[in-house]
Write a structure and sequence with these properties.
Shape: globular
Order of helices and strands: EHHHEEEEEEEEHHEHHHEEEHHHH
Bound molecules: zinc ion
Radius of gyration: 27 Å
Number of domains: 2
Number of strands: 13
Number of helices: 12
Strand order of the largest sheet: 2-5-6-1-4-3
Helix content: 40-55%
């Protein structure tokens, strides 16, 4: 778990934190440049030159990976005393973060790691703290000493502090503590009432139980305020004090919006898992989804963060969580499984010509998500039930049949559809 606390550093400690950020930034930029140069030196095609000049790096020179760069860092310390001002593990962690960003770019299609100016470098990590680092009113960091903090909530008993990240935000300095408890917590098993969710633009989320939840007005109001301030930025001269002050104001508002949104995501998640034993959502790559045609309206929606928080809340409340195939959830009738054809975005009502089932588009989609989730659970559990544990399979059968009671899906029709054939077998 990660708990965040506000720090109240002295002026001297602030200077040390800023200096640490500065050194981390230099190390980051140097290491990134090294990686980029290595790649650049190898990418010129045989029949053409690069438009820019590239360093010539010998062909047998290995790629500057984490281990190589960490070793170089140790040597660089002998030449550059400023590197010694910062705790060595903090700098190693910076290199490790770069290494991870690099891997994410390659493996998961994330963006290219960026060079950082002093506004972009906002945090650094102590991979471990010393012995007994916590007092009621202060926390001890290497090189910084005791820093006063507001312990807004106690650290849960038995948890061990694994690492500490110091973050600079518009409203001050914070520490994010990663807490770890060394026990195995079993993942929640499918049980109880199933609930499918459909995330969308009209409503933030629709549930298979028929409720539709709008995104809150206060976020919209804050968003509008932000736009206003950003527009004012144009009239300010670059580098002027006025511009700097306005930028500070914008940064504080940005933070307020993201704090408010996160808080609401937590509250909504807790609301959604109430009385449910299983939660199903569509498996959507939100990054590319939000970049798509609907980018402007969903820029502030934060679906990706919401799903992560929801998964976490489910885990904490022993609610089963699963993602299901997203394709065509709005084209299938959740009541009878009939294909109702493609709906354009302006069609807000689901009406099935086969069974006359009528509901709103988003609720229908969420019910289809629930159906898919249930059949996924059923097929997974039946295959495991076939091995040894018949009792597990039973509970799911009861769940699926229990749907009859909700009235939204008929038992006969369920057995008739393709997805439940596995059930019958
Ligand atoms: Zn139907």
């Amino acid at each position: 778990m990660t708990y965040e606390y506000k720090l109240q550093p002295t002026t001297e400690q602030i200077a040390t934190i800023e200096q640490t950020l500065d050194v981390c930034r230099l190390v980051w930029n140097f290491a990134l440049r090294q990686r980029k140069d290595w790649c650049g030196s190898r990418k010129s095609p045989v029949n053409a030159c690069s438009i820019h000049s590239e360093y010539i790096i010998s062909a047998d020179e290995p790629f500057p990976n984490y281990h190589k760069q960490a070793k170089q860092l140790t040597e660089a310390k002998k030449i550059y005393p400023s590197l010694k001002l910062v705790h060595s593990q903090v700098l190693q962690q910076t290199l490790r973060t770069l290494d991870r960003a690099w891997d994410d770019m390659k493996a998961r299609g994330f963006g290219f790691p960026r060079f950082k100016n002093k506004y972009r470098m906002r945090s650094f990590v102590f991979p471990q703290l010393g012995k007994d680092p916590i007092r009621n009113d202060a926390i001890k960091f290497p090189k910084l000493g005791w820093v006063r903090w507001r312990q807004s909530r106690p650290i849960p008993e038995g948890f061990e502090i694994k690492q500490a990240r110091i973050v600079r935000k518009a409203s001050g300095y914070f520490v994010a503590l990663s807490l770890q408890l060394n026990i195995d917590v079993p993942n929640p098993l499918p049980h109880g009432h199933p609930r499918g969710l459909d995330l969308g633009f009209d409503f933030f989320v629709a549930t298979s139980d028929g409720s539709e939840i709008k995104r809150p007005r206060f976020l919209k109001i804050l968003q509008r305020k932000l736009k206003l301030l950003q527009r004012r930025l144009k009239n300010k001269q670059k580098g002027s004090n006025n511009r700097h002050a306005l930028n500070q104001k914008i940064a504080r508002l940005h933070q307020r919006i993201s704090d408010t949104r996160k808080d609401w995501h937590f509250k909504l998640s807790h609301h959604l898992v109430k009385d449910a034993g299983m939660i199903f959502v569509e498996d959507i790559n939100f990054v590319s989804w939000q970049r798509g045609i609907l980018s402007s309206s969903s820029a502030d929606a934060g679906f990706g963060q919401f799903v992560n928080i929801l998964e976490w809340v489910c885990w904490k409340t022993d609610t089963y969580f699963a993602k299901v195939d997203k394709d065509g959830t709005s084209q299938i009738c959740p009541n009878c499984g009939a294909h109702t054809g493609k709906k354009t975005l302006d069609v807000r009502i689901h009406h099935c010509h086969e069974c006359q089932y009528t509901t709103t588009r988003d609720v229908a989609a969420s019910q289809e998500v629930r159906n898919r989730g249930l059949s996924k659970v059923a097929s997974a559990e039946f295959s495991s039930a076939a091995c040894d544990d018949r009792a597990l399979g039973h509970s799911v059968l009861e769940n699926v049949c229990g749907l009859v009671a909700t009235g939204s899906i008929g038992h006969d029709t369920l057995v008739g559809t393709g997805r439940s054939r596995k059930l019958a077998s």
